[in-house]
Prior knowledge:
- The chain is α+β, with helices and mostly antiparallel strands.
- The chain has 2 domains: 2-49; 63-108, no CATH class.
- Helix content is 40%, strand content 20%.
Amino acid sequence: MVGEIQKAFSTYSQIIKREGQQLVGAADKIEVTNAQLPQDQEWADFVGRDQSIVEPTVPLRSFEDIDYPGLHNTSTAVVREGELERRSKYLKSFTSGWYVLSSTHLHEL
């Protein structure tokens, strides 16, 4: 009886060793292939496939260059802007936020 149990353990041990060697081989292959890839290959491939990404050669816009309808209208002029604390109705706690007061509305950003 003990001999049969020892044979089963020996067979099981050989199976585990063989699987371990296969895992080490797979890990070595992964390490070699990843070490050979350029660091930006995934990003370059993604940018090449996706047409919605802006080209990095396009110059950045500044806020002053943006023009929209009503830009110089007096109703859109900023009267005051800054951080305010607002008390919640139910929890009675305060939360802060950035607010802009125009001549017509109070905007929370």
